[in-house]
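User: quick one, sequence for these C-alpha cells?
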C-alpha cells in the first residue's frame, strides 16, 4: 500500500509534503513524488526513497501553497520514475495521487485509448487521472470546485476497486478533492490550512483535529473550510476527532530505529492495554467495548480469531489462552483463508478480527464475510477510527500508540495482552474463582516490570545475534504457548534480516524439520519452565546430536539449559499462559540486532509495507 498527503493553506507546500511523506514512508518506499499548483502544475517524482525526492527538490525547487504527494508500494507497474505518483490526465492540468487498486483499470484504459488517450505509465492510477479529466472536460460551465467534485464523482462511479485519492486541477487553484473507498484517508483541520493524509501520523505535527473519512466520502477543501459529500451525491455526516498521540510519539527520539523504540516501549504499551480494564473489586477484566451483556458473553459456544502475519500469531496465542482460561473452543484462521473458506459456524460463534492498522485488506474482508453470515464480529485494533474498528460490532483498542516500524513488535504483545484480558473475563463468568482472578490480575500487573528486566539484556542479546550472523537459515521451535511465539520469532527474523527462518512445534523436528539441521543452521528454542520443559530439552539434545547450534530462551534459574544449549537468554518466571508476553522480547531483539549487523533497513525492509491494504 502507499502513503498520500495533500496540503492547502498559506505555507509553502513542498516542505510540509516532504515531511509528511517521511512519516508515511513505512507505508511504501519504492518511489515518491509531489505536484505543486502555482499557476501551473509543477511535478517532481523519482524512484527510490523519499530522500531521493528531497534531493531532486533541492536541485529543482518548487514553490506554491497547494500540493499533493505520494510514497509508493508498487502494485501495478514496476519501480520506475514514470510509474511514480502523482499522475496527470491527458490535458496535463489534473494531478492525482492514489493508494489502492483499480481492479477494472484495463477495461477503462482500453476505452480511453479508443478515445485517443495515451499513457506514460503502467499504473492503474494514471487511468483514474484520465477518467477524472475526461469527466471534468465534459462537464459544462466555468471552472469551479463543484465541477471538479462532480468530475471525481462521475469517474468513481465507473471504478471497481479501492482508492484513497487526492486530486487537484490547474483551473481550480483553490481546491483539493479527496475520496476514499477501502483505503484510509484522513482530513486534517488546521488553522488557515487543511490536509489530506493516509494516516494521521503524517500531519499530527500540524494539527490533531481530524475527520476520518468513510468509504464513498468525497471531500472538497480549501485553506479555510471543507465540504463532505458521497459518491452517490448525498451528504455525509462526519465527526471531528482529536488525535490521541503527539508528534513525539511518531518520532524516533534517541533511538536509531522505530523498531527498537517500539520494542522498548512495550512495558508501557502493555500497561496501557491493561489500564482501566482490571477490576479488583470483581477480580475480572472489564471490556466495555465488546458491547455484549454478561449473558451474551456466557452464551458464546465457540470463538474464531482471524488476522494476518503477526496478528495471526497473536491469535494463535489467543487460542491457547481462551481454551486454558475460559474453556471455550477456539479456532484460528489466517484472514486470507477465512474469507474464502466458508467455515461452518453456528450463530453462537463469536469472531474476532485482529489488526494493528485496522486497514489490512484480507482481515477487513474476513470481517465483512463474517458479518455477512450473521456472526457478531469484534475487532482488536490499534488505530482508532480505522476501517476495521469502525465496521466491527465492537471490540477492544490496544492503546499501544503508533507503530511505525514495519516489523510488528509492541502490537503483538498488546494483542496478546488484550486476548489475556478476554480470557480472564470469559473465564470468570464460567469457572474461574475470585482468588484465581485476583492471581491472574496480579501476574498481569507484574508483566511490564518483567519486560524491563529482559530489555536490560539487549547488549547481551546483540552479542548472541552477532555470533550467529553467519546463519543462512534458522529454526524457531516451541511447544504449547511457546509454539506461536516460535512462529512470530521466525517472522521477525525473516522479514528484517532476510535470513530464511521457520517456526515449528518442537516435536515436529523428527517429522522432517530435523533434516535441515546442520552447523550452519542455528535453532532457537523457546523453552520456559513449563509443563513441557523436559520435552523441549530432549528436542534440544536431538539437534545438538546433529551438530546444530542452539539458542535457548529459558526461565531464570533453569540452569539445565546451560548444559544442553550453546547460548541461553533468560526471562523472569511467570505462569505458562503469560510466557508469550516475555519470551517474544528476546526474539524481537535477536532479529533486530542481527538485521542491523547485516546492514539491513530495519524499519523499511525490502518488498514490505506496514499495512497491506491491497489483496
Ligand atoms: C509483521 O511484522 C508484519 N508487519 C505483518 O505480518 C503484519 O503483522 C500484518 O501485515 C498484519 O498487519 P495488521 O496487524 O496491521 O493487520
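Assistant:
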Amino acid at each position: 500500500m502507499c502513503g498520500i498527503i495533500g496540503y492547502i493553506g498559506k505555507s509553502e507546500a513542498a516542505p510540509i509534503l516532504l515531511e509528511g511523506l517521511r512519516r508515511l514512508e513505512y507505508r511504501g518506499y519504492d518511489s515518491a513524488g509531489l505536484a505543486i499548483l502555482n499557476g501551473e502544475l509543477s511535478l517532481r517524482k523519482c524512484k527510490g526513497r523519499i530522500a531521493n525526492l528531497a534531493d531532486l527538490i533541492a536541485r529543482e525547487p518548487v514553490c506554491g501553497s497547494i500540493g499533493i504527494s505520494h510514497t509508493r508500494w508498487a502494485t501495478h507497474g514496476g519501480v520506475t520514475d514514470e510509474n511514480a505518483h502523482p499522475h496527470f490526465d491527458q490535458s496535463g492540468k489534473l494531478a492525482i495521487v492514489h493508494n489502492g487498486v483499480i481492479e477494472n483499470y484495463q477495461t477503462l484504459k482500453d476505452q480511453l485509448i479508443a478515445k485517443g488517450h495515451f499513457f506514460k505509465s503502467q499504473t492503474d492510477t494514471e487511468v483514474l487521472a484520465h477518467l477524472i479529466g475526461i469527466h471534468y472536460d465534459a462537464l459544462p460551465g466555468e471552472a469551479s470546485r463543484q465541477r471538479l467534485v462532480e468530475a471525481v464523482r462521475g469517474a468513481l462511479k465507473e471504478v471497481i476497486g479501492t482508492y484513497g485519492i487526492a486530486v487537484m486541477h490547474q483551473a481550480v487553484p483553490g481546491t483539493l478533492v479527496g475520496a476514499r473507498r477501502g483505503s484510509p484517508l484522513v482530513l486534517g483541520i488546521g488553522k488557515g490550512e487543511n490536509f489530506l493524509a493516509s494516516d494521521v501520523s503524517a500531519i499530527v505535527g500540524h494539527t490533531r483535529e481530524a475527520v476520518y473519512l468513510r468509504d464513498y466520502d468525497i471531500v472538497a477543501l480549501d485553506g479555510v473550510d471543507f465540504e463532505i459529500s458521497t459518491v452517490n451525491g448525498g451528504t455525509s455526516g462526519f465527526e471531528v476527532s482529536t488525535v490521541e498521540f503527539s508528534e513525539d510519539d511518531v518520532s524516533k527520539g534517541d533511538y536509531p530505529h522505530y523498531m527498537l523504540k517500539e520494542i522498548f516501549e512495550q512495558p508501557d504499551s502493555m500497561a496501557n492495554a491493561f489500564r482501566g480494564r482490571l477490576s479488583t473489586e470483581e477480580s475480572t477484566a472489564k471490556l466495555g467495548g465488546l458491547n455484549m451483556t454478561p449473558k451474551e458473553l456466557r452464551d458464546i459456544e465457540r470463538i474464531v480469531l482471524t488476522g494476518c502475519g503477526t496478528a495471526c500469531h497473536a491469535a494463535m496465542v489467543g487460542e491457547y489462552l481462551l481454551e486454558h482460561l475460559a474453556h471455550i473452543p477456539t479456532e484460528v484462521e489466517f484472514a486470507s483463508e477465512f474469507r474464502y473458506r466458508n467455515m461452518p459456524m453456528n450463530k453462537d460463534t463469536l469472531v474476532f478480527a485482529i489488526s494493528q492498522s485496522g486497514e489490512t485488506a484480507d482481515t477487513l474482508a474476513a470481517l465483512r464475510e463474517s458479518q455477512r453470515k450473521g456472526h457478531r464480529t469484534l475487532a482488536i485494533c490499534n488505530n482508532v477510527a480505522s476501517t476495521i474498528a469502525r465496521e466491527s460490532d465492537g471490540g477492544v483498542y490496544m492503546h499501544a500508540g503508533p507503530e511505525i516500524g514495519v516489523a510488528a513488535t509492541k502490537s503483538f504483545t498488546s494483542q496478546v495482552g488484550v486476548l489475556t484480558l478476554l480470557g480472564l473475563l470469559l473465564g470468570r463468568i464460567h469457572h474461574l474463582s475470585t482468588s484465581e482472578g485476583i492471581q491472574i490480575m496480579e501476574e498481569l500487573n507484574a508483566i511490564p516490570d518483567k519486560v524491563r528486566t529482559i530489555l536490560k539484556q539487549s547488549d547481551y542479546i546483540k552479542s548472541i545475534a552477532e555470533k550467529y550472523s553467519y546463519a543462512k537459515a534458522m529454526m524457531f521451535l516451541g511447544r504449547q504457548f511457546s509454539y506461536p511465539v516460535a512462529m512470530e520469532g521466525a517472522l521477525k527474523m525473516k522479514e528484517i534480516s532476510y535470513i530464511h527462518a521457520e517456526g515449528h512445534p518442537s516435536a515436529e523436528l523428527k517429522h522432517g524439520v530435523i533434516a535441515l539441521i546442520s552447523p550452519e543452521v542455528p535453532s532457537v528454542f523457546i523453552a520456559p519452565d513449563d509443563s513441557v520443559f523436559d520435552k523441549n530439552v530432549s528436542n534440544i539434545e536431538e539437534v545438538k546430536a546433529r551438530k546444530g547450534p542452539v539458542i535457548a530462551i529459558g526461565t531464570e534459574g533453569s540452569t539445565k539449559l546451560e548444559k544442553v544449549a550453546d547460548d541461553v537468554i533468560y526471562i523472569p518466571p511467570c505462569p505458562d499462559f503469560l510466557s508469550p508476553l516475555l519470551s517474544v522480547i528476546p526474539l524481537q531483539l535477536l532479529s533486530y540486532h542481527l538485521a542491523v549487523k547485516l546492514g539491513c533497513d530495519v524499519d523499511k525492509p525490502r518488498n514490505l509495507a506496514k499495512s497491506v491494504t491491497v489483496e
